[in-house]
Write a structure and sequence with these properties.
heterodimer; A: about 270 residues; alpha/beta; 2-enoyl-CoA Hydratase, Chain A, domain 1; 2 domains; three-stranded mixed sheet; about 45% helix; globular; B: about 280 residues; six-stranded mixed sheet; 9 strands
Chain lengths: ~270, ~280
């Protein structure tokens, strides 16, 4: 894996990006504070995710993880001092951008969760397409404990991901669940031994990176915005599918199916 | 209509509607108030070709809208498989124009609406392969019964396509958005036990027994008042869009069902401790 720092010159960067073949690995890097998100990390994450989604043809899938033993403890409470309402709105808007890129951006995102995923850390994991959790990982929508409503998109993403009944339970009780339980309620797609989430997430991401990029991009867009009602979903397939049917990647896939060979996808 | 053998439209120009015509790509038969629609192209694992789509629309159009004797429908596949999905040999042919492709998908959407948003309950009976558009058809049904050896795969992305035939809507609705994203993005094969665990299917059976169990379930649907079933299916299409939609539907539709003869009969039968007899009014 080749290392590459982003953002500020001084090391260590709060967000690190490394590459493993077609997989870009984004690491929340402030292990001393369990990767709690202060404003600087939040802005770097926003910019990094957007650049990887929109301006990095080398990568076809993204892994999001935390440095050290934890994913992310949530917003940095030490920064939650006196803030005006307008300043708070700015901060929330920054989080919205990254969640939107993760949900509807063109590349799949796999979260590798060790240790805590609390508050906005949980929101980030939930915004991923696929979550690999350590069996002893700790998930908690801790927002209510500090008198806040759940944010960073989770009011929308959690009910969508696990169903309203379980989402209401998690959001309103602010109780912790472990990785095994997260797997049982489909919050985590895969539960693995502690310490092995990153390797497992990279493996999943490599598999996803083998799919035709345009189909993945349109699928993510469709699932985020294009299927909000039955009629919208049907309209989306009529609008999008003919474009994909004419794509070179689809035609390559059909030829490979007939030839029993492995197709090469270019995103065209 | 003859429900014994259902003519595929391509062959409808004067061919007799008899058992002698063995090329029926969709077969329809009846058990009591339950119609059984069988996709019948076993050599291609009942692939969802254009011919299959048109024949299915023809069958469902008649059963849903023109056949009062049918109260519930079972959809199944011949030869030990449900449906292997789109016919890749068709896709490999000369590429149609965008407008032609839109029409082809619109045909699949018409079929989807007859099943998902039509007036009669539909039960899928799944054996063997249930891939791609086959998965879409199973997910469009109100409930699905699966053989324990059936296999499911949302294969679309592997050939560079979006999940279609309603699946963008039905799969997240049925199994939750998290699992739906996983199955759609990974395009991995899951077995019947996993399909049951995540709510993709409602019941599993011994291999070869899915159809019998599905007919039993459909007969239970058929025993309920048809007007109420039709309104329930219509409600479920939009009730989940917002709580305002849900309230509006119950305020608009419940008074209608309260005024049906079948509701009055059901209440009377309950008081008299007898089995109600519904007449669909």
């Amino acid at each position: 894996m080749s290392g590459m720092h982003t953002g500020k010159d001084e090391a260590p960067a709060l967000i690190q990006v490394t590459c493993d073949g077609p997989v870009a690995i984004v690491t929340l890097n402030n292990p001393g504070r369990r990767n709690a998100m202060g404003r600087q990390m939040r802005q770097l994450l926003r910019d990094t995710m957007h650049r990887l989604m929109a301006g990095d043809p080398e990568s076809r899938a993204i892994v999001l993880t935390g440095a050290g033993e934890h994913f992310c403890a949530g917003a940095d409470i030490s920064e939650m001092t006196k803030r005006t309402i307008l300043q708070s709105r700015e901060i929330l808007a920054e989080s919205c951008v990254v969640v939107r890129d993760m949900l509807a951006g063109p590349k799949p995102v796999v979260a590798a969760v060790e240790g805590v995923a609390f508050g906005a850390g949980l929101s980030l994991a939930v915004a991923a397409d696929y979550v690999v959790a350590a069996s002893n990982a700790r998930f908690c929508a801790a927002f209510l404990r500090v008198g806040l409503i759940p944010d960073t998109g989770i009011l929308w993403t959690l009910p969508k991901k696990i169903g309203m009944s379980r989402a209401r339970e998690m959001l309103s009780l602010a109780a912790e669940i472990d990785g095994t339980k997260a797997g049982a309620i489909s919050l985590a797609n895969e539960v693995v031994e502690p310490g092995t989430t990153l390797a497992a997430a990279i493996e999943v991401a490599r598999g996803l990176a083998e799919h035709p990029p345009l189909a993945i991009a349109l699928l993510k867009a469709a699932l985020t915005d294009g299927a909000t009602t039955m009629d919208a979903a049907l309209r989306t397939e009529i609008d999008y599918q003919p474009v994909l049917r004419q794509s070179r990647d689809h035609q390559a896939a059909c030829r490979a199916f007939v030839d029993k060979s492995k197709p090469v996808f270019t995103g065209q | 209509m003859s429900v014994e053998q259902n003519e595929a439209p391509e062959g409808a120009g004067g061919q007799p509607d008899t058992d002698a015509n063995v090329a029926e790509i969709v077969q329809v038969r009846r058990e009591g108030e339950v119609a059984i629609v069988t996709m019948n192209c076993p050599s291609r694992r009942n692939a969802f070709s254009m011919k299959m789509r048109v024949a299915l629309i023809d069958a469902f159009q008649r059963l849903v809208h023109e056949d009062a004797a049918t109260k519930a429908i079972v959809l199944t596949g011949a030869g030990g498989h449900f449906c292997a999905g789109g016919d890749l040999s068709e896709m490999n042919a000369a590429t149609p124009t965008l407008l032609e492709l839109r029409e082809r998908i619109a045909v699949a959407v018409r079929l989807f609406k007859l099943i998902y948003a039509g007036t009669k309950p539909v039960v899928a009976a799944v054996e063997g392969t249930c891939f791609g558009a086959g998965l879409s058809l199973a997910a469009a049904c109100d409930v699905a019964v699966s053989s324990s050896t059936a296999k499911y795969c949302c294969a679309f992305v592997k050939v560079g396509l979006l999940p279609d035939t309603g699946l963008l809507w039905t799969l997240p609705q049925k199994i939750g958005g998290g699992k739906a994203r996983e199955l759609m993005l990974k395009a991995n094969v899951i077995d019947a036990a996993e399909a049951l665990r995540i709510g993709l299917v409602n019941q599993t059976t011994e291999p070869g027994r899915a159809l019998d169990a599905a007919i039993k379930l459909a007969a239970r649907f058929a025993s309920f008042p048809p007007v109420t079933l039709a309104l329930l299916k219509a409600s479920l299409v939009t009730a989940g869009n917002s709580i305002e939609d849900a309230w509006r539907l119950e305020m608009d539709l419940n008074p209608l069902t309260r005024q049906t003869d079948d509701h009055t009969e059901a209440v009377a039968a309950f008081m008299e401790k007898r089995k109600p007899v519904f007449n669909g009014t």
